[in-house]
Write a structure and sequence with these properties.
four-stranded mixed sheet, alpha/beta, binds 3-methylbut-3-enyl trihydrogen diphosphate
Length: about 250
């Protein structure tokens, strides 16, 4: 079983304190991954939280707005590397064979924004028994300098590349919520939930739940969106929170 797991930045960092790891939350996640990584191939992707977003905002960089300021690139990427090192350390302390993989060193976007992400190293690391740990990062972007590459985008690229059987997105909410604030159990088409998610804004490709759901629906494997408390259940093979399974899901 191959699992791609995204740990949201706001799950593992103190969102309002610049560059502060939420040690308790990260340790709990690492313990859950340590329990499951024994039998499964696991790829971990983590978000930026109070490391990436704070620096990205300061330098006016987003998934579409780029920068040519090398100092800004070093600041944003450097912060994400510090968070990645902290995540890898905590996973290692829990007994997980975690190793860092930095997307900025490998990926690129063309002028129309299409991402090319080499994945041979991730596949090989998995085959060799490692747990690759990637992170939201910056990416070289033709005609824009460098733009933000979100962890969600990485998940969508990686899941088919490693033939993931399951995709998990651990965020601060317990699932995708309907208008009344209740967790939607299962989503099979975007249309069915478009109104609950605030419409079908096609430009919302990375931020917001609508973009997340749309991207996860296109995956060949079912994706599960759940809160931190449900991480052990997800890794045990259960489907807590919301299951997102589009037409192409096998
Ligand atoms: C953001 O990654 C990375 C940077 C800002 C450089 P994500 O967009 O995946 O982060 P979270 O999960 O929303 O914090």
């Amino acid at each position: 079983m191959t699992v791609v797991l995204k740990l949201g930045g706001s799950v593992i960092t103190e969102k309002d304190e610049p560059e502060t790891v939420d040690r308790a939350a990260l340790s709990a996640a690492a313990a859950a991954i340590a329990d499951s990584a024994v039998g499964d191939d696991v790829v971990v992707v983590h978000g930026g939280g109070s490391f990436g977003h704070h620096h990205a905002a300061e330098h006016g960089v987003s998934t579409t707005e780029g920068t040519h300021d090398a100092g800004g690139v070093r600041a944003i990427h450097g912060a994400m590397c510090r968070l990645n090192a902290a995540v890898v350390d905590v996973l290692a302390d829990a007994g997980v064979p975690a190793v860092p993989v930095h997307p900025f060193s490998a990926a690129a976007r063309d002028a129309s924004g299409d991402l090319s992400l080499p994945t041979a190293q991730v596949r090989t690391l998995l085959d060799e028994g490692f747990v690759p740990v990637l992170h939201g990062d910056l990416v070289a972007h033709a005609d824009a300098g460098a733009t933000v590459l979100s962890g969600d985008e990485l998940v969508v690229e990686l899941a088919p590349a490693v033939a993931a059987d399951r995709v998990g997105v651990c965020s601060t909410v317990p699932g995708v919520l309907d208008e009344g604030g209740d967790v939607i159990d299962r989503i099979e088409t975007f249309e069915a939930v478009a109104s609950a998610l605030g419409g079908s804004d096609a430009t919302d490709v990375s931020g917001g739940m609508a973009g997340k759901v749309r991207a996860l629906l296109a995956l060949p494997a079912p994706a599960v969106v759940f809160g931190p408390d449900a991480l052990p259940a997800f890794l045990a093979g259960e489907s807590p929170g919301t299951t997102i399974a589009g037409d192409d899901t096998n």
